[in-house]
Amino acid sequence: MSTKMGYSICSICDIGCQVRTEATGGKVTRVIAHDNPLLAKNICFKGVAAPSIHNADDRLRVPLKRMGERGDNRWEEISYEQAMDEIAAKLKTVIDQYGPEGFAVSTSGWNTQTTQSADRRFMNLIGAPNWISGVALCAGNTAAVNRLTYGWFPMGDFANTNCIVLFGHNPKKHSWTPIYNMIEAARERGAKVIVLDPRVSEQAEVADLHLSLRSGTDAAMCLGWLKVIFDEGLYDRKFVENWCTGFEALKARVDEYPLDRVSEITGVDAALIAEAARMYATADGAIIPWTPITDMQISSTSAIRLHSILRAVTGNLDVVGGETLGGFNPDMIPETELAMHDVLSHEQKKKQLGYEKHPAYTYRVAEMLKEPTERVWGYPYADLVMGCHMANPSEVFRAMAYEDPYPIKAFFALGNNALMSYPNQHQIHKAMMNQDLIVAHELFMTPTAMMADYVLPGDAFSERNHIADTWNWTTRLGLSQKVAEPPEQASNTYQFWRDLAFRFGLEEHFPWATHDDVLDYRLSRSGRSFSDFEARGFMEIPTPHFRKYRKTGFATPSGKVELSSSVLEDLGFDPLPYFREGPAPCEQYPYRAFNGVREDPFFQTGQRNIKELRDRCPTPKIFMHPNDAARDGLAEGDWVELQTAVGSVSAELSIKANMKEGHLRVPHGWWYPETVGRAQLAGAFLSSDAVLCSDEDEFLDAEQGIPHFKGFPARIVKAARPELIEVAL
Amino acid sequence: MTQRSEWKQRKLETKAKLMAWVANRLFSTRNHGVDGAVKRALLPQKKQGSPKLEN
Questions:
Q1: Count of CB contacts below 8 A, A vs B?
Q2: Which residues 287-346 of chain A have a CB within 8 Å of chain B?
Q3: In the predicted model, what is the mean pLDDT of chain A?
Q4: Which of A258, A314, A328, B36 is deepest in the core (most CB within 10 A)?
Q5: Among partner residues A37, A157, A235, which is closest to B39 by beta-carbon distance?
Q6: Cα(A376)–Cα(A154) distance, rounded to whole angstroms?
Q7: Which of A386, A452, A387 is closest to A418 using CA atoms?
Q8: What is the predicted pLDDT for the residue at A698?
Q9: According to the model, what pLDDT value does residue A221 have?
């Protein structure tokens, strides 16, 4: 049997480490570190476990059609062609009856890699605006909100920075590994690290400064930093004068947040807040890398904007050691062009759910930024980290469940366990029960797939060629080579959408027969093919350009950094950042819980069925401070139930001195594959954090419509361990 | 950050561009040329050979 080894972009999690993958006889056998010394540390035990994932016995290998009631998990095996024919026919029926807006898609590019915007292209061609993704809560929304201030989403220059600010983010050896390694390298050459986290996290333990702020108060903290920076003149006056609008209005807003008020809100000593602000502002190059923590708060839009504003006013925007605005890689046709956003009519864009009420990452803002985006970056739409021009997920699930404001009756989930990936899981379940057609495209039978009418097996990263463009977060291109064979009846996501498009008579818009053909097309702008790319190397890094705004201005309506956002003002929102308090603890629910926190062996809701990873973390764990546990009479290892006004999760208690008192940490994405056939949807409602938060408007960030995951009222009680779950697999 | 002069900005930018060029030219290709030589010098020698990279 022949053995192949190729370069890969691992897609077991979202970070996309460059590794090497070996296969024998068409079957992946091992994943090992890259042979480039600069990349060799970028590997974790999730990536090493990829052979167990790709070769798992319970991996989906043939298309399935539902036999019993929805969610019963009873299936009939059918051919791929039959599945696609029936899916196309049923989707046409839904569209004929409810219009193209009656069709919604949820996906995660982190998992699927290969869609190449074929989903958006298909949807735009048929007039369907309701595309959602988990990036609505994580990175994608950050990208969209960054655009409001300076028109792009920057990446920190870790290699040259002198100060790194981590808002709750906690990269570790086996979680966000490349970011961890870059932080370590920066620290070794003397860069300062400031961590803002209620917990004494691993990063906080070794930080130069740790600010143990109350969960969900990032916006207030940033306003406090700005107060220090403005009062002490620690901002880049020349840049602010020449390249920013709205400084005086912002300064007046910041004056509403004196340090004693910020200290009271955040629970952090005023002197420490000032010290951190000074450290950041006076570093010769400082970065505030993306964080999933700020993405999920009731003041998220303001808090993300405040990160942007801090970058700008301290002169850290698009400079060495600061945060660079990369733009599109000129050698690769971007997904935004493939997506054909312009063919979706204005009337259909207006029907996108969220367009009216929570427009920050919908087509509504995208339309407002079209002209400056094209002027600066060469394309009218900028698909950044998959997170721009999305519908609002909560509104989509409401429409699916209650047909309000209009019915959605067909739902596709690709590489996305949608049932457990957005807030208000009970509503999502109701939404799925109210569908005429659900299609899942997956590697494994997830709870979402169990709800489907058709389940199609997907391919894995070792089984396809790919060039990763980091979804335009950076300009780097990375090579991923096919070394193994996918299951015979599996498809990649590009193939799925193309085959569906052909059944809709859209073949002229999908001229590329295979995913490899799309890669050739995307590279054709630089006169190359995929083969040319892989023959040369495993990565391309275009020469960076700094302070590009001096030639083009910024991609905002004013052409400047908008400290006071003209887009938000035109939409009727407060154009200046503010802090809004989340729901307060009360006698009934005395704790502040935060969720959305992942565990190292798993990515989102995945991998609980992989023994070598599950053994590292057999059960979900709720973290609690020892004083809180003593007061509640709870002990390490107790099985507990965390309850909120809208739901509860069951988990094992872990008492940790590094937790902030009064706070509870809830893990993300737990279900129990070992209970398939015995528990409803394999335990999807036992321990999933998605049941805990309301998505009613009063609990949502106003501009984006995302939930407050960081500091919601909760209580904790002792409970019996669910009988069906198996701690040792 | 506020102390950087235009001269210093340009110096840092030139250095960063040079380093990116080096990374792109010398550290992004396969096991041959300068990249291969650097890898062979920096990485520990394998006791057993790995299968050759495809293509």
A1: 106
A2: 314-316, 319-322
A3: 96
A4: A314
A5: A37
A6: 15
A7: A452
A8: 86
A9: 98
**Predicted confidence (pLDDT) per residue in A376-423, tens digit:** 999 999 999 998 899 999 999 999 999 999 999 999 999 999 999 999
* HEC secondary structure over A469-510: CHHHCCCCEEEECCCCCCCCCCECHHHHHHHHHHHCCCHHHC
pLDDT, tens only, A256-284: 999 999 999 999 999 999 999 999 999 99
Q: Nearest-CA distance from B55 to chain A in Å?
A: 7
Q: What is the mean pLDDT of each run of 10 residues along chain B (55 residues)?
A: 84 93 74 62 55 48
For A568-585, the pLDDT digits (tens) are: 999 999 999 999 999 999
With H, G, I as helix, E, B as strand and everything else as coil, classify residue A710: strand
**Residue A244 pLDDT exceeds 50:** yes
If you write DSSP's letter for every residue of A566-622 in order, what string do you get?
Answer: HHHHHTTS-SS------PPP-SSS-EEEEEEE--TT-STT--TT-HHHHTTS-S-EE
By C-alpha distance, which of A683, A672, A689 is closest to A608? A672
* Catalytic residue check, A157: no
Measure Cα distances from A105 to A353, A414, A420, A430 in Å.
12, 8, 15, 17
Pair A666, A689: CB distance under 8 Å: yes
Which one of B15, B16, B28 has the shortest CB-CB distance to A537? B28
Q: Is A586 exposed, middle or buried (0-12, 13-18, 19+ CB in 10 A)?
A: exposed
Place of tokens 């995208």: A366
Measured distance CA(A402)–CA(A404) in Å, rounded: 5
Cβ–Cβ below 8 Å for A284 and B52:
no
pLDDT for A729:
42
Q: What is the pLDDT of residue A667?
A: 94
